[in-house]
Amino acid sequence: MKTLMKPSTADKSYLKRGRILGQNRNVFFLGIVSLLTDVSSEMIFTLVPLFLSNVLGATTTIIGLIGGLSETTNAVFRIFSGWLSDRVGKRKSLAVLGYSVSTIAKPFMYLATSWGAVLGVRFSDRVGKGIRSSSRDALIADSISAGTRGKSFGFHRAMDSAGAVIGLAVAAAIIYLVQGGRLLNSMVYPGNVGESMICLLQ
After folding, report:
1. Is the pLDDT of residue 9 over 80?
2. Which domain holds residue 46?
3. 3-state DSSP assignment of residue 132
4. Is residue 186 part of a domain?
5. CB under 8 Å to 120, separation ≥6 — which residues?
6. How far apart are CA 132 and CA 201, in angstroms?
7. Does 89 have pLDDT greater than 90?
8. Cα 43 to Cα 37: distance, rounded to the nearest angstrom
9. Is 16 exposed, middle or buried (0-12, 13-18, 19+ CB in 10 A)?
10. d(CA 144, CA 125)
11. What is the DSSP string of 42-91?
């Protein structure tokens, strides 16, 4: 008869990690990364329907097709990323890959001259989001104890939502203050900062 073994303290590496503002180090930095990434994403992609219709002359059918394909891609890659994360155990590497794909894709929106190019950028960005989301959540879960899951995931989701709100506000301010051509160029900067900060994860 097999005896069930209790997890050793060596398995609880999260107990040895530093804390920042009461949060686990990984949770804190992933929250900051998500905030900055969402600022960049919301600044860009909230305006995509207007850009497609007013600048590129795309029909509502094309706009809906781009949105639908983008979110479907995100969902499919979340499933694949979650499976791969469990199989290979390289959660940080997958998260970095996902953030990198999105960060690299966004500046190309500035060069888009057709709805096909916009679809390519949106597709690439959603691939990145799909790859990072499941592995990022698994990384958070691995970094914390069972008793702090609500606090940790609550902090991360709050930072994520705050990034969306800030992104919309900043986009509105930039539209009001500067020319539209400079708008897309400036929107990629928060995402670039967020991508560099993910290297601080343990």
Report:
1. no
2. 22-200
3. helix
4. yes
5. 108
6. 14
7. no
8. 10
9. exposed
10. 28
11. HHHHTTHHHIIIIIS---HHHHHHHHHHHHHHHHHHHHHHHHHHHHH--H
Question: Looking at the 3D structure of the chain, how many domains does it have?
Answer: 1
Say which CATH number the domain at 114 has. Answer: 1.20.1250.20
Mean pLDDT of 41-64: 87
- Provide the pLDDT for residue 155: 92
- Angstrom distances, CA of residue 191 to CA of 34, 39, 41, 152, 188: 9, 7, 8, 22, 6
How far is residue 65 from each of residues 46, 60, 69, 70, 194, measured CA to CA in Å?
16, 8, 6, 8, 29
pTM metric for this prediction: 0.75
Residue 10: inside a domain: no
pLDDT of residue 122: 93
Residue 114, helix vs strand vs coil: coil
Mean pLDDT of 1-7: 41
Q: With beta carbons less than 8 A apart as the criterion, state whether 171 and 183 touch.
A: yes
Length of the chain (residues): 202
> Which tokens hold the place of 65?
């097709």
Q: For the segment 102-151, what is each residue's pLDDT rounded down to a tens digit?
A: 889 988 888 889 999 999 999 999 999 999 999 999 999 988 888 888 99
How far is residue 91's CA from residue 82's CA, in Å, rounded to a whole number? 9
